[in-house]
UniProtKB/TrEMBL annotation:
GO terms for molecular function: acyltransferase activity. It is found in: Cell inner membrane. InterPro entries: LipA_acyltrans (IPR004960). It comes from Paludibaculum fermentans. GO terms for biological process: glycolipid biosynthetic process. Keywords: Acyltransferase, Cell inner membrane, Cell membrane, Membrane, Transferase. Pfam families: Lip_A_acyltrans. The keyword Endoplasmic reticulum does not apply. It comes from the Bacteria. This is Lysophospholipid acyltransferase family protein. Transmembrane segments: none annotated. GO terms for cellular component: plasma membrane.
Length: 298
């Protein structure tokens, strides 16, 4: 974990607290989301350039206008994540259905009947913070794996918000695997973000949007070791309904071949992103790790 100065940590913490308070109290959160989107887009031009490069690489058939629209949607989606997190203290079992509904819940029920736990293969698609939070209120609490934030003040704040609905956090430290496996043994669910770039020593290369991407091989190994059912799941924004839809795909069967299992899980993720490209976090340097001999994409 990178260390920042105490002053920087306090300033970042104060800024985030102010932003959450504004989203929580502002009478028109949609207008505030638009303002936040404008700030993101202008304050981080490097991230927008990364998104444009990703789109040129992954979706070569898109026009410049298409790419601009998708990048705008990406920032809008991120603003919705922050706006929703700000509302977490107000969302409980009595009103959660005003914000989100299920789609494909029968796949979760089937996984529970198998009795070996559930691994949610999720991603920075839609509202990844709200998906776990809402599932705890609408069905049952779950655990999810997170990397501690570099700023300890923000990490404590994020932990507080993420656990308000009864969920449990599993850090990526040395001892996170044991409680994760115990959770699955109790036929409970664990959510893991699978869409981030990793270094070759941690992962393997699979095809993702027609190009090689280095992904964490641990997810497929964990599924094979425990027999847990793998369900891709995402909280996607429905513009028509003006609310989120917590969508569960059918169970992806694991066969013990790490390469093949990893590829099929990411094929499901790619299909979901292609359906909702404006809701994926294209600002991440997803294809940073290249196969030997290939030049850097960025």
């Amino acid at each position: 974990m990178a260390r920042h100065s105490p002053l920087r940590n306090r300033l970042e913490y104060a800024l985030v607290r102010c932003l959450l308070a504004a989203f929580r109290t502002f009478p028109n959160p949609t207008r505030l989301s638009r303002f936040a989107f404008a700030i993101f887009d202008r304050a981080a031009p490097r991230l927008s350039r990364t998104a444009r490069r990703n789109l040129e690489f992954a979706l070569p058939g898109t026009t410049e206008a298409d790419r601009a629209r998708i990048i705008d949607g990406c920032w809008w989606s991120l603003a919705r994540v922050i706006a929703t997190v700000a509302q977490f203290p107000r969302i409980d079992r009595s009103n959660v259905h005003q914000y989100i509904r299920y789609e494909g819940f029968e796949h979760f029920e089937e996984a529970k009947r198998r009795g070996k736990g559930i691994l949610f293969a999720t991603a920075h698609l839609g509202n990844w913070e709200f998906s776990a939070f809402a599932h705890a209120l609408m069905a049952e609490p779950m655990s999810f794996v997170v990397r501690p934030l570099d700023n300890p003040l923000l990490d404590d704040l994020a932990t507080h918000y993420r656990t308000l609905s009864g969920n449990r956090l599993l850090g990526r430290g040395k001892d996170f695997l044991r409680p994760l496996i115990e959770t699955l043994k109790h036929n409970e669910a664990v959510g893991i973000l699978i869409d981030q770039n990793v270094t070759p020593d941690r992962g393997l290369f699979i095809d993702f949007f027609g190009h090689k991407a280095c992904v964490d091989a641990g997810f497929a190994r964990l599924a094979a070791r425990t027999g847990a059912a793998v369900i891709p799941g995402y909280a996607l924004w429905s513009e028509a309904e003006q609310q989120h839809v917590l969508h569960f795909d059918p169970i992806v069967e694991m066969h013990g071949d790490v390469q093949d299992d990893t590829q099929r899980v990411h094929a499901a993720l790619e299909a979901a992103i292609r359906q909702h490209p404006e809701q994926w976090l294209w600002i991440h340097r997803r294809w940073k790790t290249r196969p030997p001999g290939e030049p850097s994409l960025y």
